[in-house]
Amino acid sequence: MNLKRVWSLFLARNLEFFRDKAAFGWNFAFPFLIIIGFGFIFDDQNYQKFKVGIFPAEAQESSLPNTLPESFLEEERITFLQLPDRQEGEELLRHHKIDLLLDRQSDEPAYWINDSSPQGYLAEKILLASYLPEDLKIAQKRVIKGREIRYIDWFFPGLLGMNMMFSALWGVGYVVVRYRKNGTLKRLKATPLTPLEYLSAQTLSRIFLLMFTLTIVWIGSDLIFDFQIQGSILLVFFLFFLGGLSLCALGLILAARGTSEEFTSGVLNFITWPMMFLSEVWFSLEGSPQWLKTLSQAFPLTHMLQGVRKVMNEGATFVDVQSECLFLVVFTAAALAVGAKMFSWNE
Fold it and tell me: What DSSP character marks residue 64?
């Protein structure tokens, strides 16, 4: 491998990216806006609230007394929606837009639920429990000891990982196919450049851009949300680096063949969507079927996020995440070798 040729191609690809001001700006704006938006939506105050509709609305209240327990109406984990009548409430309940419907002035306590709604089942249990005497002791309450992990601290690595996945796969796989289609690769074939040198330069260029973007977005987001990191931040970035490499290498396999941008776009969607939902970007797979958990371990994004969350939230050291690091290194080497073997300048 000629490192001088790799370096020249690395510089050329980076200059192409930085000179495209629209793409450059969007690569920073998109992840930052996503993190800020979801950070406020899923903060500790708004996460996992139940929605309960009550009729009639306060403005239409008659002189009849309120028959709902005060402890239920003061529950912080429930959002109450004032509805004009029962008919509108049932319509919202039917479409899962609310979890429970209550009549605030019926002679006897009455409520409506949608039997197919898991949220409705839980909201119903909270309502029924509020009718029990406050001094009734059914079970003893215990609170976990130690530092509580905020949801944003668990959620943040997933958003960064998702952004890296899209940027790596589309930035490598889609771009190389575009080069092949417009004849750029055909011209490079006439030079001494080898497929391995070309693919290595593409990978290094993309990982440089990924880490550059990650650093800027991390600093900006941390100023707003003040993320709590129990372990080494250098180890966190090292895991992101390995994960980014493996995702870029996966993109190279997609870029090895093909001249159709439409087909490549379909294949990228086929890969990214399952990885996004099974790699615990948005939610944990705890409690899912074992075969689903096993399948998720085939994705590099899963190992990257597991390692990062161990370091951020549990204070894990390099020894604790060495299995995740080893998987990402082996996956990168294997994908790079397969991509170089399959690569074609023309087809």
Answer: S
